[in-house]
Amino acid sequence: MNKILGEVSHALGAGHMSQQHGAGQLQVQVVEARSLANKDTFSKSDPYVILSVQHKGGLSMFGSEYKTKTIDNNLNPVWNESFNMSCSDPSTDILRIKVKDSDPIKDDIIGTVDIPLSHLQGAKNEWFNLQPHNTGSVHLILTPSWGGSSGSFQQAGGAS
């Protein structure tokens, strides 16, 4: 029996993640943003955040897009909103954060940040700089849960 498991482990490769599709959950708390670029002419931006899990290749998971409330006329908004998101493969999926300005005709993108889920080895409470440069930053608390534990991958062939 151990020989068969060893052959399977060897075939998978030492660095291969044993994460199975549909097994990952990510809790995202969008806390606040600061120093957002102003996209409005006569007032301040009305920011909100769009969150989505993107598969390798840039495809969004069906039903995986979430939106915070809009904070009117504010470049340092506080949301304190939490979302539970599913991911299919934390070793390749990314969390995409878009901060947008709500406008009557067309919403403007203030900035974005992509966070590879493979970089989450436990809960993170930190500020992420938006791109393009100098468009502000967003404070997120990320709590991953996949692979049978909170935020750590199970390595194939490793001890459990």
Short description:
With 160 residues, the chain is mainly beta. It is built from one helix and eight strands.
Could you characterize what this model shows?
- The chain is mostly beta strands.
- The protein has one helix and eight strands.
- The strands form two sheets. Strands 4-1-8-7 form a four-stranded antiparallel β-sheet, with no helix packed on it.
Which terms summarize this structure?
disordered C terminus, 4-stranded antiparallel sheet, 8 strands, mainly beta, 160 residues, elongated, single chain
Number of helices: 1
Distance between the termini: 17 Å
The rounded Rg comes to 19 Å
Weakly predicted, low-confidence segments: 1-22, 152-160
- The helix-strand sequence is HEEEEEEEE
Overall pLDDT confidence: 80
What is the count of β-strands?
8
Residues in helix, %: under 10%
- Approximately how much beta-strand content do the residues carry? 35-45%
CA-based shape: elongated
Label the structural class. mainly beta
Largest sheet: 4 strands, antiparallel
Strand order of the largest sheet: 4-1-8-7
